[in-house]
Design brief:
46% of the residues lie in helices and 12% in strands. The chain has helices at residues 3-11, 20-28, 48-62, 93-107, 122-130, 133-138, 143-147, 150-157, 164-180, 192-204, 241-249, 253-263, 268-271, 276-292, 294-309, 328-334, 341-349; strands at 17-18, 34-39, 66-71, 116-120, 184-188, 211-215, 319-320, 353-355, 358-359, 373-376, 380-384.
Length: 386
């Protein structure tokens, strides 16, 4: 690729590039760039929203650069305020380390492990806060700069508290870039302030400022809110192949094109020539193959077509052994088909629950025979047994 082709490849689907001239200069130097992405292990699972930045990091790897995945074991205990309207609960050290164990395994479903450095930011932030460096750094960042943050402005206007730890968070993330001498830092659009602080601190420490690149926050499968486990609109990197394929088939045609742009390197002009249903199946297949392999992706497509096109039951239904007479809403909740009993009752009232193909429209005691099939929504099937 020419330098301009590399820049187009690396910035596809991106929002902020600070600055393009700096990126061009770094690429023209011919050196292997150190490209940083930080993630705080605040939960055990990653989803496709996380994989947008990971996919961009993989593009840098494909051009021969080094990815540095920073596990924020220090900053997770602080709580990133970016884009939040309330203070994030502070996690204990044990929970942080437990979550961190799963992160690398999931990240390597996207990244090339041979071109990835894994670093924990407690390595440099523990001595940073215990020595004089923190005080020296605090002198270089003004209160006015911190209060210019959009998320802080909104919280102050709403009378929502902002902790001093949150105020310091951007300094800690910026110090990550100083410690690593990062050439490029990636993040979501809600991270732009933190990435720019990293540039500022690098300048003040005599380093060439990193290029800051942000990617959009991926919209969830509902097409409304950003993808989040708490909203129930996520596709987890550890989702079973059938679940992953099915969730991706549920997105709108418009959202499908956004997923193609942000999560794949497919040519969008070619995608738009396909029938929307076929394009969606190919997208679901590509992403399921990425995280589970080709055989699992093909099997998931066959399962989807059998269940949704031919209206047949899937072959691999999990066996469910509820108590005879148990409330249907409780059975759905305990089986994991609904996030709560109230949501299970809502599914029933919406006509989304069936037994042997017959809609159940009212919650009540479950009566069943061995081999009956319980369906909740479009994707959850269970074979009932005593």
């Amino acid at each position: 690729m020419t330098i301009q082709e590399q820049i187009s490849f690396l910035t596809r689907g991106c929002v902020d590039i600070v600055n393009v001239e700096g990126l061009q200069k770094k690429l023209e130097s011919g050196k292997k760039l150190k490209v940083k992405l930080g993630c705080d292990p605040t939960s055990a699972d990653l989803h496709l929203g996380h994989s947008v930045a990971l996919s961009l990091l993989r593009r840098f790897q494909d051009l021969g650069h080094t990815a540095v995945l920073v596990i924020g074991d220090f900053t997770a205990a602080v709580g990133d305020p970016s884009g939040r309207d309330s203070t994030r609960p502070v996690l204990g050290r044990e929970q942080i380390l437990e979550n961190a164990k799963t992160y690398t395994d999931q990240a390597f479903k996207v990244l090339d492990p041979n071109k990835t450095e894994i670093r924990f930011n407690s390595e440099w932030l523990d001595p940073f806060v215990s020595g004089k460096e923190l005080l020296q750094t605090l002198q270089k960042v003004t209160v006015a700069q911190v209060l210019e943050r959009d998320d802080f402005k909104k919280r102050m206007a709403a009378g929502s508290p902002i902790s001093m730890l949150e105020v310091l968070y951007s300094l800690f993330q910026g110090q990550d870039s100083v410690a690593l001498k990062a050439d490029v830092e990636l993040g979501g659009t809600d991270q732009i302030f933190n990435l720019l602080v990293g540039r500022q601190l690098q300048k003040q420490n005599g380093q060439e400022p990193q290029v800051a690149i942000t990617v959009p926050l991926l919209v969830g499968t509902d097409g409304v809110k950003k993808m989040s486990k708490s909203y129930g609109n996520y596709v987890g990197l550890n989702d079973a192949p059938n679940d992953m394929f099915g969730k991706l088939m549920s997105v709108s045609d418009e959202l499908m094109l956004s997923y193609y742009e942000l999560l794949t390197s497919q040519d969008l002009a070619t995608v738009k020539t396909l029938h929307p249903m076929e394009a969606k199946k190919q997208l679901a297949g590509l992403l399921t193959e990425r995280f589970h392999g080709k055989a699992a992706a093909l099997a998931a497509r066959e399962n989807f077509e059998k269940v949704f096109s031919k209206k047949e039951n899937p072959d691999d239904m999990p066996l469910l052994k509820p108590a005879q007479g148990a409330m249907l809403s409780a059975v759905l909740f305990e089986a994991g088909a609904a996030q709560s009993k109230n949501k299970a009752r809502a599914l029933i009232e919406q006509g989304a629950v069936r037994i042997n193909g017959e809609k159940i429209l009212q919650d009540g005691p479950l009566s069943f025979q061995d081999g009956d099939v319980l369906q909740a929504g479009k994707r959850a099937f269970f074979k009932l047994s005593h």
